[in-house]
Write a structure and sequence with these properties.
By secondary structure, this protein is an alpha+beta fold. It contains five helices and 17 strands. It has two domains: 113 residues, no CATH class; 146 residues, Immunoglobulin-like, CATH 2.60.40.
């Protein structure tokens, strides 16, 4: 993550003249009794760089990134940058651009690294760029996610339990997206075909209450993973699709399914995501 940093202005100050010039002034004063002392040079501050121009530079750099969602906003004295990029290299490159901006621009930058396929899933779902925190949602209708590990750090052998509470009625889609490029469909799937939800009614996942419930146990590979939950007016997928599939084809299908929603339903897509970390011990 690019941490917050500020680069205050460092004004240049011009000197009061060379030693030779000082000698000439002394000679003039010795020869003329009415000569006046020359005025002292005043410090000149360089013009403050334009925040709008700095924003253009940042936006241009962001536009060259792949699999990223970074937003910039102007503040009273500078810029606020937040969002996500797809790799550590992109994070370092963006930080270099910010560091190279002229002095006098106050910067607050919070950019998280969300490697593929997480970054692509976020982009398809249309989540906002304020993703420096672990979780983000689109609006007040976004479903809430609560976990049996509030730290969102899961160790090998631990179970993943999630409670999803929709903010609006509709059809629920919940996916576990792993950093190794695989997707586990939690809702809908063959054992849980009914994806309908009511607003405010919690749905428990990973808890064995019936034969339709899966238990999700943490196992290799370890690293970042993401829960992506969507509530839509129309179902996105049939329940008989493969429960586990590669992220590439699935994300392409998710993009197509969202685009195929009726025109009056495309604006009623509520989304919530949460990034987990799985570790060996």
């Amino acid at each position: 993550m690019i941490r917050s940093f500020s680069d205050p202005s460092s004004p240049r100050r011009w000197g009061t003249g060379s030693p030779a010039a000082a000698g000439v002034a002394c000679l003039l004063m010795a020869g003329l009794s009415q000569a006046q002392t020359p005025p002292a040079a005043t410090a000149v501050d360089p013009p403050r760089p334009s925040v709008a121009e700095a924003r253009k530079e940042v936006d241009a750099a962001v536009g060259r990134l792949n699999c990223a969602g970074v937003g910039t906003a102007e503040t009273a004295k500078g810029l606020r940058i937040s969002g996500y990029v797809g790799s550590d290299e992109d994070a370092v490159g963006l930080k270099a651009v910010l560091t190279a901006l002229p002095p006098g621009i106050d910067l607050e930058a919070r950019v998280a690294v969300r490697p593929w396929p997480l970054c692509e899933a976020l982009g398809i779902a249309g989540l906002p760029t304020q993703l420096a925190t672990q979780s983000a949602g689109q609006d007040t209708d976004a479903p809430t996610l609560s976990f049996n590990r509030p730290s969102l750090v899961y160790r090998k052998g631990e179970t993943l339990e999630i409670t999803v509470t929709a903010g609006m009625p509709g059809h629920l889609t919940v996916d576990y997206i792993d950093g190794d490029g695989s997707v586990i469909h939690m809702v809908p799937m063959r054992l849980r075909r009914d994806d309908r939800v009511e607003a405010g009614r919690p749905v428990a996942l990973g808890v064995a209450k019936s034969s339709a419930d899966r238990i999700y146990t943490i196992s290799p590979p370890f690293g970042p993973a993401m829960i992506l939950a969507l509530v839509t007016r129309e179902p996105l997928f049939a329940a008989d699709r493969e429960e586990v599939e590669p992220a590439g084809p699935y994300l392409a299908g998710l993009r197509a399914a969202l685009a195929a929603l009726p025109a009056d339903a495309r604006g009623a897509v509520a989304v919530r995501s949460a990034v987990l970390t799985t570790v060996a011990e």
